[in-house]
Amino acid sequence: MNIELFISDAVRRSVEALYGPLAGEQLQVQKTRREFEGDYTLVTFPLLRRSRKSPEATATEIGEYMKTNVPEIKAFNVIKGFLNLSLDDAFWAARFAEIAADERFGQAPASGRTVMIEYSSPNTNKPLHLGHVRNNLLGYSVAQILRANGHTVIKANLVNDRGIHICKSMLAWKLYGNGETPASSGMKGDHLVGKYYVEFDKHYKAQIKELMAAGQSEDEAKKNAPILREAQEMLRRWEAKDPEVYALWEMMNGWVYAGFDVTYKALGVDFDKVYYESQTYLLGKSLVEEGLKKGVFYRRDDGSVWIDLTADGLDEKLLLRGDGTSVYMTQDLGTAYRRFEDNRLDDMIYVVGNEQNYHFQVLKLVLKKLGYADWSDHITHLSYGMVELPEGKMKSREGTVVDADDLIEGMVSTAREMSAELGKLDGCTEEEADAVSTMVGLGALKYFILKVDPKKTMLFDPRESIDFNGNTGPFIQYTHARIRSVLRKAAETGIAYEGAVQAAYLPEEIDLVKTLTEYPAVVKSAGEGFAPSVVAAYVYELAKQFNGYYHDHPILKEEDAEVRRMRLQLAAEVARVIRSGMALLGIEVPERM
Q: Could you tell me the CA-to-CA distances from 452 to 362, 527, 579 in Å, in that order?
C-alpha cells in the first residue's frame, strides 16, 4: 500500500464530506515532524475559505470527522492550523504483513528507462588511489540504486589510455627502465607504470631548473625541457601509429589493466562496458570536422580548432591542437556519440570530480550546438568533492597519493586487529576470521565514504571508520550479525516465526514498522538525487533504532509465544532491509561476528 496516497484520499473524502467537492484546492498532507505526536499532518490554512472557521476549529472538525469515519485513524491533535493524525496499530500491523510478504520490498517496478553511468575512468599512467576509490564506490552505488528504482543500468568505464600523460610514463620507462617488467620487479603492473610517471616528473623538474639557470624564464623552461618535447613527439608518433611506439603502448597498458582488475575485484566493483579513448578519439575528430563544416567551430592560424562560447557566458575552448592531436574534449565528444548511438540511452551520468564542472558544461553545450540537443539535455555530471587526508591533499606526480591497494590492505588489517581486540572473532575459524575482517574493513571504507554527501569535500580517517559504535559500517554490520544470531538460536531451539501473527505491538515496535515502511521512499529519493548518503543515513537510523529496542525488550526470552513470534519476524525484516540497503552501497553484511 502507498500510505501517503491512502492518507491523502482519506483526507480528501473527509474534507469533501464536510465542505463539498474541492475545486482545484491542493490538499497539503505530509509526514508529521518528529517533535510532534502523529503520523501524518494536514495543513488546513488553504481550506479556511470553505470552512469559514478558524484554523484550529477547522482542523478539529476534520479530525473529529476522520476519527469517527476512517477506521484506521485512532487519534488526532491540533497545533494551530495543523491537524496531526495518528494511525492505529492494526493499520501498521497490516503494513508489516505486506512488507514480510513482499520479496521485492524496496525494489521499484521496471521504469522502461535505460541509464548509463560512467565511473572509475582511470589514466593508464598510474595506479588507482584514494580519489579513485571514492569515484568507484560512488558510481557503483548509484548504479545499484538506479537499478533498484527500476531502470536498466549500464555500468561503464572509460579508460584514458592515450594522451601526453601516458607518453610521459612510456618515455620514462624507455629512458630509465632497463627493461624492468612486473614479473622481474615483483610489482603490480599499474604500480610499475606509476613509478615511471613519477620518474618522468623528477627528470622534468631537474631539466626546468637547468634551463632557468641558463637564463630562460620558468614558462619558457617548462615548454622547452627536452624530456617534455620528447613526450610530445612520442604522442605524435602514437597518433601516426608508429609501430615501435604502439608496441610499447600496448605492452605497458596491458600491465596496467592486469593491475586494475585486481584492485576492482578487491573493491567489489565491476562494469558492463569498457570504452577506451584510443578507440573514440578518432570519432571525436570526425565530429570536430563536421562542426567546422557547419561553422560551429573555427580554425586558427596555427591549425588548432576552437569554439567560441563567450556569448554563452563561457570562453573559447580548444578542440584540436595545432599539430592535429586531440584533447579530452575531442574524445569525450566521440565517446558520448558512440554511447547514445549504440545503446539508445535515456540518460547518461558521468561520475567525475568537481574540478571538471566546467568541462561538462562545455561538453553539453558543444553537443547541443552540433545538433545533439536530445542527448545533451539528458547528460548529468555527478560532481563530487575531493578526498583529503589529515596531512593534506594528494599529488600523483610527486608520488604522495594514498594507493588504493595499500588502503584496502590496511583497512582489512586494521579491521582484523580491532575485531580481535573486541572479541568479535571469538569462535571463528581462521577462514571465517579472514572473511569477516575483509567484509568489515571494506564495509568501513565504503560506508565512511558513501555516508558523506557527494558534493562535499571529505576528510578520510581510516581508523575512525572502523568503529563498532556510532555512524559506521561496522556498527551496522554488527547489528545485522546480532539479528542473524538471534534468528539462528530461534531455529536451533525449534521456535518457528513464519506466518501471520496476532500480537499486541509496543510503541517501539510500531516505530520500527514505520521506519521499515519508509524504505521504498528512501530508495526513490536516493535515485532521484544520485545520493547514496540518503540510503546510508536511513540504514544507520534503522540499525540504531533496532539496537535501542533490542536492549530494552527480550526476544527469545519473551514468554508470550505470539509476541515472541512477532518480534522474531520484526527482527528478520529489519535484518533484510539492512542487508538490502547496505547492498545498494556495495557493502556486504556478515551472518556472524
A: 28, 16, 20
**Rg over CA atoms, the chain:** 30
Q: What is the DSSP letter of 84?
A: E
Contact 139, 530 (CB under 8 A): no
| 8 Å CB contact between 76 and 83 | yes
**273-276 and 73-79 as β-strands: parallel, antiparallel, unpaired?**
unpaired
Q: Are 304 and 318 in contact (CB under 8 A)?
A: yes
Position of cell 567525475? 352
Helices (H), 20-87: 48-51, 55-69
Largest pairwise CA distance in the chain: 94
DSSP for 475-519, written as a single string: HHHHHHHHHHHHHHHHHHTT----S----PPPHHHHHHHHHHHTH
Report phi then psi at 495, rounded to 5.
-85, 115
Measured between its terminal Cα atoms, the distance across the chain in Å is 36
Question: Rounded to an integer, what distance in angstroms lies between the CA atom of residue 199 and that of residue 214?
Answer: 23
CA 209 to each of CA 202, 214, 219, 224, 396: distance values in angstroms, whole numbers, following the listed order:
11, 9, 11, 11, 21
Indicate whether 401 pLDDT > 80: no
| Distance separating alpha carbons of residues 576 and 543, to the nearest angstrom | 11
What does each C-alpha distance from 201 to 172, 188, 273, 342, 524 come to in angstroms?
Answer: 9, 21, 33, 39, 46
| pLDDT value, residue 394 | 42
Cell of 507: 510503541
Q: Where are the alpha helices (DSSP H) in 102-242?
A: 130-148, 164-176, 182-185, 189-213, 218-224, 226-239
Nearest CA-CA partner of 533 in 450, 589, 413: 450
pLDDT of residue 400: 52
- Helix, strand, coil % in the chain, rounded to nearest 5: 60, 10, 30
Strand, coil or helix: what is 392? Answer: strand
**Measured between alpha carbons, how far is 21 from 378 in angstroms, rounded to an integer?**
41
**For position 356, what pLDDT does the model report?**
93
pLDDT digits (tens, 9 = 90+) for 354-372: 999 999 999 999 999 999 9
Map residue 457 onto helix, strand or coil.
Answer: coil
Beta bridge partners of 123: 160
Q: How far apart are CA 583 and CA 378, in angstroms?
A: 27
Whose CA is closest to 128, among 206, 189, 55?
A: 189
Neighbour count for residue 590 (Cβ, 10 Å):
20
User: How far is it, in rounded angstroms, from Cα 520 to Cα 471?
Assistant: 22
Task: Please tell me the pTM assigned to this model.
Answer: 0.91
